[in-house]
Amino acid sequence: MAVLKQLPVDAFPRDFAWGAATAAYQIEGGWDMDGKGPSIWDTFCHAKGRVFKDQTGDVACNSYQLWEEDLKCIQQLGLTHYRLSFSWSRLLPDGTTNYVNPKGVTYYNKVINDLIANAVMPMITLNHFDLPQALENRGGWKSPEIVEFFDSYAKFCFETFGDRVKLWITVNEPYVCAKLGYEDGLHAPGLKEPGTSVYLVGHNMLRAHTRAWHSYDTHFRHLQGGKVSIGLNSDWAEPLDPDCPEDVAATQRYMDFILGWFACPVFCTGDYPESMKSRIQAKSLQFGFSEGPRLPEFSENELSPLGTADFFALNYYTSRKVKDTSSHPSELSFTGDQGAEGVTDPSWPVCGVSWLAVVPEGLHKLLNYIKETCNNPAIYITENGFSQIGPVELEDTDRCQFYQNTLQEVSKAIRDDGVDVRGYFAWSLLDNFEWADGFSVRFGLFHLDFSKVELKRTIYRSGREYAAVISRHRTKLEKT
Length: 480
Ligand code: GAL
Description:
Blueprint: E1 17-21, H1 24-27, H2 40-46, H3 63-77, E2 81-85, H4 88-91, H5 102-117, E3 121-127, H6 133-136, H7 146-161, E4 167-172, H8 174-183, H9 197-224, E5 227-233, E6 236-239, H10 245-268, H11 274-286, E7 312-315, E8 319-324, H12 334-338, E9 340-343, H13 360-373, E10 379-383, E11 388-389, H14 397-415, E12 421-427, E13 441-442, E14 446-448, E15 457-459, H15 461-479
Parallel strand pairs: 1-2, 1-12, 2-3, 3-4, 4-5, 5-7, 6-8, 7-10, 10-12
Antiparallel strand pairs: 8-9, 11-13, 14-15
């Protein structure tokens, strides 16, 4: 029996966005084709010992050459929206507008035009982890210069594609990029600089986003009428022991250090959460760190991040129970500053990767939390998914159940709690290059056989059932 068919579609608004998401480095391949410049992910993967079995995104799903196969997948699902990212260095090989790669422009024009011809609305992420290597060589996200480079790139994209693209995300998951790339060294550029660079990188991403949002607002909005946001990921967190005040406080810190870090400046106060400011300062004192504030301050002379999002772009995957670790001995580090540890509840199933405990009701709670703490924004769930590790079944019933439960929770948030959810993007359209896990972890609604050059796309049962939900929703609309 198809589980997703039981989903009541009534709760979803008429113009609900039914989407799927991908990112350039994870699907495109063609890493050095037609004038593309290298990105930090090309460099990271080409160095040995970084990624599962030293796999790379050199070819990935070869979407650069097989875009039309992706389009067929999108049509088969009946998506109303498709979220993809631009490869910055495919458009601007050295990261700057000094030279524009015409073949990159042609590629994305074709993708966008084909989507629109099929009544699928594109949502474009300007930077999904793959910073141009040429800019990394000039200091990358750690350098304040990056704000100018990003703004020029964003303006170039608005100018070139904004007549057709109406939904933009500036930076995807600044938390993940800063934490895994500069604190833990697990993602590109692979730096391990605990307790310092992570905040600087996050700050510059926020400043870059702010500049780009203002550029859109000033120069493009009145002509193009689109919307711009920043892609924020968050776990949902609850205290391990709800009766322990330290765990309760640690849970708030856990949320503040992941979601509040960016949501608070953009949606609430224009500044970082108090818990971050006070903990980081106290820890700096404790460690005798005297090279200036580790958490940068927002300057009065700069544009404020407050109000720089036209919707809330949320990536949700998992939940945690949180215990207080604020008095545990630690090195100078992000985790030490946070003073909180998230663990999984033994009752939660884990899918594929150990970090991904499957907790659909966590999304429901998180949606309510965002409604309450971020001034009831319009929310797009821009990523959410369920992974499998090989050997995988095309009859992926667990994943079908996951989508059923998740969409049920989203429908409850809309119907029962009045959360303004505008859309849902499954991660991911295709099995793809899952960063440091290479091709071992599969999130796709379509299966790919990475051992064969054809890279044939085959729909999973979860893809068929997701398509059935979308089609039922559309049919219902036609009748009313
Ligand atoms: C997100 C990321 C995606 C995808 C997903 C699944 O953090 O934005 O690119 O890989 O995680 O792990």
